[in-house]
Amino acid sequence: MKFLCLAYEEEARLNALSRPEWDALRSETLAYVGILQKSGHLILTNALQSARMASTVRVRDGERSVLDGPYAETREQLGGFFLIEARDREEAIELAARWPSARLGSIEVRPVEEVLREERRY
Amino acid sequence: MTRSCAEPIADPEARTAAEAARAAEAVARSGYGKLVAILSARHRDVAAAEDALAEAFALALEDWPTKGVPQSPEAWLLTVARRRIIDGIRRERTAAGAVDHLKLVGEELAAREAPEIPDERLALMFACAHPALDPGIRAPLILQTLLGFDAAAIASAFLTAPATMGQRLVRAKRKIRDAGIPFEVPTGAELAPRLGAVLDAIYAAFAEGWLDPGGTDARSRPLADEAIGLGRVVVALLPEEPEALGLLSLMLHAEARRAARRDIDGGFVPLAAQDPRRWDAARIDEAEALLRRASQLPGAGRFQLEAAIQSAHAARRVHGRADWPAICALYEVLLASTGSPVVAVNRAVALAEVEGARAGLEALAMWDADPRLADYQPYWAARAELLARAGEVEAAQEAYGRAMGLESDPSVRRHLDRRRAAVAAAEAGDHHAER
How far apart are CA B218 and CA B39, in angstroms? Predict the structure, then answer.
C-alpha cells in the first residue's frame, strides 16, 4: 500500500534552530532517507520551499484566480513530503514516526487511492 | 463471542483443539529444524521438506483434536511429512523417484520401530552456509529452515523488502537442490573454514536480534535467543571446536547485559553507564566457562577474541572498571586479522579510553572514507561521542544527527538526541561562563 506522508512544521521554529542543530537535523533526515531507500519503502521524497512561495489556484465559472500564499494560513505549514510503500497503516505510521521532523511538527499519513473510484469519491 | 484468557474453556471440544494447537506449537518451536533437517537431507530439497512439514502441521491441527495428541508428536509429523514427500515423488513418476520412494518407505518403517529422531540439524546448517551460496542469504536461510521464520519476519529483521527476501530464499533453496550441495558435516581440513561460515551466519542472526530488540515482526520470537539455541546445537555436536565455544561465549556475554541496556522507563543505557549488578551472572559464568574451555584448545579465532573482549568488559563486575588496555590490545589483534571497519570503530573507542578522545579520533580518521561505515550507526555514534569529548561540539552534533537517522530503535534515538542536546547545552554554558 502506498501512503503519502505530509510533513507539517512551523517555519519559524525551524528557522530558529542554531546552525549545529540544523546540521544535525539535516544529517539525520538524509541518513533516514537512505535507510528508507535501501529497505525499499521510499518511492519519492522532497522538501518544499517556504509556504510563502506558494500560489493557490482556483477556477470558478471559467475564471482563473491565483492567490499568493498557501491554501490555508495555519501555524504549521506543509514543509515536505515522502511517498512510501508500506505493508499496512501500522507500518506506515511506524515509518513516519521515525521521520526526524515529526519531533518538531506533525506528519499526516494518508493512504493513496490507487484508482479514482467510479462511484462516490470518498 | 470473546473470551478472556484467564477464563477456563468449558467446551471439551474447544479444549482438545486448544491442547492440539499447543502441542503442535511446542513441536514447531522445539523440533521444527530437526524435522526439516531430516526431511530435506535425502533429496537436498529444503522447499519440498518445508512444504511437506507445513501440510503435516495442518493435518495435525485437524487430526489431533479428535484422535488425541500422539505419544510422539515429532515422530507423527515426520511420518506424515515423509508420506507427503513420497506422494510428490510418485507424481513425478521417474525411475530415480521410485528408488527414493522405496528408501523413504524403508525409513518410515524404521522410524516406526525406533521413534528416536536423529539430530541432523548441523548438516542442514552446513548446507545453508555452503560456500556456493551468497554469504548474505546464509543467516536468513538458517533462520527459515531451522527455526521456521517466514520470509516477511526475516525481511524485517534484515531490513529488506519481504518480496526480495522471499525470492532470495527460494533461489538459495533451488541452488542447494540443483547444485547438489551436500547435507553433511565436513571433516578434516575442510571443517574449520566451513564451520566459520556456519558460525558467521548464526552470529548474523544473533546480531540482528540483539540490535533490534523491538519493532520487527520477529519480536514475538527473540532472534537472539534462537541464535543462542543454534550455538548450543553446534557446541553439543562439535564440543572440541574452539570457535564454536567462542561464539556461544560471545553471545551469552552480550545476552547477559540485555536487561541492563534498559532503565526502568525503557530508556536505552549504553554499556559504560550500565549497572553491573543488573547483568545476568549465570549467563556470564557460563560464558566464562566456555571461554576457558576454548582457550585450552589450539587456535584462537575471531569469536574467541571477541568473547575475550566481552570478558574484559565483564571484569567491571569484579574490579569496578573494564580492562580497557586488554580490550584495546584484543581489538588490535582482531583488526590485524579481519581488517573489518566494525572492529576498527570498536578499537578506536577502546583506544580513547586508554589514551584519550584525540587518539580515538585519529584512529577513526583512517576509516572515515570507508563506504561501509557511511550507514553504520555505531560508527557515527562513536564519532559523535569522541568529537564531543574532544570539544568539537558542532561536528559532534552533526554526527549525533547522522547516528539518529540510521538508528531503528526509538529509545536509542532518544538517548542520542539527549546526548546531542547535553553537548550543545554544555558548550552554551561554557560560552556563557567566558563572558
Answer: 25
Which among B161, B404, B405 has the least Cβ separation from residue A39? B161
The pLDDT, as a whole number, for residue B3 is 43
User: What span, in angstroms and rounded, lies between the C-alpha atoms of B110 and B116?
Assistant: 10
Give the sign of the dihedral formed by CA B327, CA B330, CA B334, CA B336: positive
C-alpha cell, B356: 584519550
| Residues from chain B contacting residue A26 (CB–CB below 8 Å) | 401
| Assigned C-alpha cell, B58 | 495442518
| Interface mutation target, options A21, A23, A27, chain B, most CBs of B under 10 Å | A27
Query: Which residue has better confidence, A49 or B188?
Result: A49
Q: CB count, 10 Å around CB of A8?
A: 19
pLDDT for residue B11: 67
Chain B: closest CA distance from residue A12 (Å): 20
Cβ-based contacts of B400 with chain A (< 8 Å): 24
pLDDT at B210: 64
Min distance B266 CA to chain A CA atoms (Å)? 18
B9 has a pLDDT exceeding 70: no
* Cα B71 from Cα A52, distance rounded (Å): 75
What digits encode the pLDDT tens for the residues A29-59? 999 999 999 888 999 999 999 999 999 999 9
The answer to whether residue B424 neighbours chain A at the CB level (below 8 Å) is yes
